[in-house]
Design brief:
α2 runs parallel beside α3. The relative contact order is 0.14. With 231 residues, the chain is of the alpha+beta class. The protein has a 6-stranded antiparallel sheet with strand order 3-2-1-4-5-6, with no helix packed on it. It has a 6-stranded mixed sheet with strand order 7-8-9-12-14-15. The chain has a 4-stranded mixed sheet with strand order 10-11-13-16, with no helix packed on it. It has 2 domains: 70 residues, Beta Barrel (OB fold (Dihydrolipoamide Acetyltransferase, E2P)); 151 residues, Trna Endonuclease, Chain: A, domain 1 (3-Layer(aba) Sandwich).
């Protein structure tokens, strides 16, 4: 996944109202869009080095978008809007699932009146739904965790994936860690015990859970290695 424009380095001042972040670029303070609705636990220390991009869309009120925060000399991708793009490229390249020539890959596929899943693979069988989650949290060395706040939306997706499974579809929950420093992954059950409970039940009912870290390039981010999941 290539960023829409060249990365601009800056220093974090503060995040506020969830979607706004003040960043110092050289001697100027810029208010940028923060494309992450989570708590961003452990990332928002004033003085952290950051990278942002500038949009070419003249209609945008906020011209800049926060993309990366550096914590303890490690880059963390915080833009949840690009997670699916990163995953999509990996799907097309056979990094996640070996697609056959007869398979058809859909993005944002409607499942029912209430739910769309991130991806659907139409194949010789009934098909496969995939829901993708972005991961930024790491409270222990080499360990990534999700979620960083209670996620009612995440719990809803697990429930809907289970409905799809009962109807005969294959179902996947994919966690994309936008970091390079994590070798293991677990659910942060102290933050959201209900999510952990639902996922444990879903795993027993043939939900497939996969997790990958990312590699930061000079102009973008890509899926890197599959990460071990601690159940």
């Amino acid at each position: 996944m290539i960023f829409e424009s060249e990365l601009i380095a800056g220093v974090l001042i503060k995040r506020y109202k969830r979607f706004f972040v003040d960043i110092k670029v050289k001697n100027k303070v810029i208010t940028a869009h923060c494309p992450n609705t989570g708590s961003m636990m452990g990332l928002l220390k004033e003085g952290n080095k950051v990278w942002l991009t500038k949009s070419s869309n003249e209609k945008r009120k906020l011209k800049y978008t926060l993309q990366i925060i550096e914590v303890n000399k490690q880059k963390v991708g915080i833009n949840t809007h690009i997670t699916n793009k990163i995953f999509y490229e990996a799907l097309l390249n056979g990094k996640i699932i070996n697609l056959k020539k007869s398979d058809i890959l859909f993005k944002e596929k409607k499942f029912n009146l209430k739910t769309r899943f991130d991806f659907f693979i139409k194949n010789e069988k009934k098909g496969c739904f995939i829901e993708v989650k972005n991961v930024t949290l790491s409270r222990t060395k080499n360990l990534a965790e999700f979620p960083d706040a209670v996620t009612e939306r995440g719990s809803k997706h697990i429930k809907e994936l289970m409905i799809a499974r009962k109807k005969g579809f294959d179902v996947y929950l994919a966690f994309v860690i936008q970091r390079e420093d994590c070798k293991r992954f677990k659910i942060a059950d102290d933050i959201d015990p209900e999510y952990k409970k639902l996922l444990t039940i879903a795993l027993k009912n043939k939900l497939k859970v996969i997790c990958y870290d990312c590699k930061f390039l000079s102009k973008g981010i890509k899926i890197n290695n599959r990460i071990n999941i601690i159940k």
